[in-house]
Structures are given as C-alpha cells and as structure tokens.
Amino acid sequence: MSNIYNISVDVAVIGGGPSGLAAAYSAHKNGAEKVLIIERGDGLGGILNQCIHSGFGLHNFKEELTGPEYAHKYIEMVKSLKIEIMLNSMVTSVNDKREITAINENGIYKITAGAVVLSTGCRERPGGAINIFGERAAGVYTAGLAQKFCNIDGYLVGREVVILGSGDIGLIMARRMILEGAKVRAVVEIMPHSSGLARNIVQCVEDFDIPLYYNHTVIKTHGKERLERVTIAKVDEKLNPLKDSEFDVDCDALLLSVGLIPENELAQMAGVELSPITNGAIVDSTFSTNIDGIYACGNALHVHDLVDFVSIESEAAGKSAAGFIKSQKNYESNAEIVGESGVRYVVPHKMNSFEISEDLTLRFRVGDVYKDCNVGVYADGVKIKNKKCMILTPGEMETIVLKSAELAAHKGFSKLTLKVEEV
Q: Which among 17, 341, 392, 406 has most CB atoms closer than 10 A?
C-alpha cells in the first residue's frame, strides 16, 4: 500500500525550470514563508541544462551566460533561502481549491497550498502533428530532443541533416550539428519569414552558409529502417505544396522545429481559462488566472524568445502569489487588453484601470513582417503611446512599457488596444 503524505504550504510552484525558480525565489522574498517547488525531473533548471550556447542573462544579469550558468545562478539563489524542493515528483492533479496531488517513489502527496504558480513550461510539437508522408524510419527527431541527445547524452543524431522549421531551437541545432562535424543540407521553412530570432538566422545559418528555403516544406520521408532522404516542395499562398516544385535531399536525420505548445493540462484541471491564440492561461497584470490564488508564468503562459523575460515575468507572478497569501483577495480586473491590425496577441490580457499605481509591461507578437511602422496603444480609442519600429517579425516578441502616469491620465478605461500602423 502506498504511503500518503499530507502537506500544507503557502505557495506551491509546479515546475523547477527558469520560470519556477524565479517565481519561488520571488514569492519567498516577498513574504511567503513556506514555498515548495515540485519538479518532475531529477534536477532543477529545466530546458536551460541542455542549452549550452551563450546569449543568456544579458537583460537580467547584465552579462552573457550559457543556459546552465544562468540556471545555476537561480538555483543558488533558491538554495540560499528556505525553499523546499521535491524532485522526481509528478503532479497528477490540481483543483480550483488549490489542492495538489503529486507522486514519487516515496508515495502520494496531498498538498494544500495558499497559492499555486503554474510554471510547467512547454513541449515541442511532434512529427505526428504535421502529417508528413513516409515510413516510420529512424532518424526523425524534434530539435529539442536532438539537442538533449547531443548536449546531455553525447550522441550525434545524424551525419547529414535537414531541419524543418526555423524556430530558435532548430536554428541553434543547425549550428550545433555543423560544430559537431555533421553536414546540414537545408533548413526548410513553410512561411515566407523565420519563426526564430533574427540574430539566430545570422549566427546559426547565414554564417555557416546553410541553405535556407522559405515558402518550402518537407512533404515526404524516404527509408524504411533508417531515413535516407526527404522530398521538399515549394508551397503556395495557402501553404499547399506545388507539385512541379518537388526535389529530394539525401539525409539520415530530419529535425523538426515546428512550434512549441504550452503544457496546460493541469491548468485545465483547475478550471483555468486558456487563450485560443497562445494556448496559455488568460491572466491579468498580476499574472493571476480566473481562479483565485492560481498564477501562471513562463512558457506555460506564452512562448518566450529570451529566458531573461521569463524570469522577470515569473518574479512578478511569485510576488503576486505571496501577496495573495496575505490578503486572500484576488486582483480585480475591469479592462481587457487586446491586439488588432497585425498584433496577434498581448500578455497580460486584463488589468484594473481604476487602481493604477505601477507601470504596465505589455509583451506582444505580430502576425506578419512589418517594416518602418508604429505600434499604437489606445485606451478606449484614444492614443496614449506610440512606439516606432524599424521592423516587426512574428519570431520576435516585442515589449511596450506604459508608465503609471500615462495610464492614470485615462483612468477608468474599459479596453486597451495595440495596433500596428503605417508611419
């Protein structure tokens, strides 16, 4: 018979990646005495542990770090406080009363929390989700799995590689494969623009003379036991393959970088409302969901480009969770925040337009490429901010900070709208 343990904590943080570490640290620093991190892996740090390239920490720590170095800083910060950590522990359920069930080799844990922070991260979209024709040959991997095999386990997944999709992990793995002695035959992107950062296009693809095919996709894999080649075709405006444009590329590995999906099954169990655009929780400016005392942050909320922004948002969520413990009152929102005219989504989704005491940071993505444009912010149709942009792309998350004075001048508005506008 399994052992059953009953635990009560102030703040339970589900997930020990960069967002969970930042949220737990902030919650404790802001007055939550008993903070618990529940992590299903065998160590803290999450995806950062396999991201051995540099480029992390420039915003948050003002120095350039690798992924493990960045994670180590937050792990040391967490360990310097009396924060409890449960590793190798899988959360199986969360409800709207903030009751959590978790299991590990020691038994079943029934955890009652004053507040819950969901920092469960995201997972990669697999090959089965994009319906590529062909046999089930060995050699087809998601880019993140290939990264783990290479950087953690020391295995090279192939010698001649094609990468489908131009997400950041795929671009970084293109460079990694070259540095490990493999040949990258092509990076294939179905859209007319990259879904990754511009700096990764330059540093990981252009600098290594890797062919990059926009408006193309992989339509078929060949090989029964092991991948032998793939068929690539150009696509039309509706993303349908053009038959006369097909050509084959020999390869023994296909890496898929075709999107990330926030892990929100636990959020759904608790009754948290999700955005159909981001697949993450709908939150207000304190990162509170529609369920009292449940907060969401990190890639479980929306997919980020930079871990620095994950940490900043997660620290705000942790602070809000600690505040809820003291007040037992949720932040009340009366105004919605939306994107129009090219702005695909904005986070947060709601705010209180009557209680304005702090600056509001809005993070958003656009749905297409825009050059020499403005992003206007409107409160009930009245422009309150304008940001000039040389270029906006779907692959780069943008930020606008609204000062409290700018918001207070239009106190009581019911809708905040972001729009892309021509200069």
A: 17
Dihedral sign from CA coordinates of 270, 272, 278, 279: positive
Interatomic CA distance for residues 116 and 295, integer angstroms: 6
Angle at 10 between CA 5 and CA 13, to 5 degrees: 80
Residues 143 and 225 in one domain: yes
Residues in the chain: 423
Sign of CA dihedral 395, 301, 316, 101: negative
Rounded to an integer, what distance in angstroms lies between the CA atom of residue 297 and that of residue 348? 10
| Token pair recorded at residue 415 | 């809708």
Considering the domain architecture, whether residues 50 and 119 belong to the same structural domain is answered as yes
Q: Which residue has the tokens 């050059």?
A: 371
- pLDDT tens for the chain, residues 1 to 423: 469 999 999 999 999 999 999 999 999 999 999 999 999 999 999 999 999 999 999 999 999 999 999 999 999 999 999 899 999 999 999 999 999 999 999 999 999 999 999 999 999 998 888 888 888 899 999 999 999 999 999 999 999 999 999 989 999 999 999 999 999 999 999 999 988 888 999 999 999 999 999 999 999 999 999 999 999 999 999 999 998 999 999 999 999 999 899 999 999 999 999 999 999 999 999 999 999 999 999 999 999 999 999 999 999 999 999 999 988 667 688 899 999 999 999 999 999 988 888 899 999 999 999 999 999 999 999 999 999 999 999 989 999 999 999 998 888 999 999 999 987
Parallel, antiparallel, or unpaired: how do β-strands 4-14 and 35-38 relate? Answer: parallel
Residue with tokens 């120095």: 63
Tell me the Cα Rg of the chain: 22
Quick one: 281 and 316 in the same domain? Answer: yes
H helix runs in 41-97, sequence order: 67-79
CATH, residue 362: 2.60.40
Which among 205, 237, 258 is the end of a domain?
258
- Cα–chain-centroid distance for residue 301? 7
Domain range for 417: 336-422
Q: What angle do CA 251, 255, 258 make, to 5 degrees?
A: 135
The tally of domains found in the chain comes to 3
CA atoms of 91 and 103, how far apart (whole Å): 6
Q: Do residue 388 and residue 415 come from a single domain? A: yes
**Which pair of structure tokens corresponds to residue 147?**
């990264």
Structure tokens that stand for 150 in this block: 């290479």
